[in-house]
Amino acid sequence: MRTVAADPDGENINVGCGATDLSLLQGVVMDGGFDLGIAFDGDGDRMLAVDGEGNAVDGDQILAVLALDLDVDLVAVTVMTNLGFHQLMGEHGIEVVVTDVGDRYVLEALRERDGLLGGEQSGHIIYLRDHVTGDGLAAALLLCGALKGRTLHEAAALMPRYPQVQENVPVATRSLPSALLGEVERINGELAGDGRILVRPSGTEPVVRVLAEARDFQKATQLCASISALVRRELG
Question: How far apart are CA 13 and CA 104, in angstroms?
Answer without folding.
Answer: 23
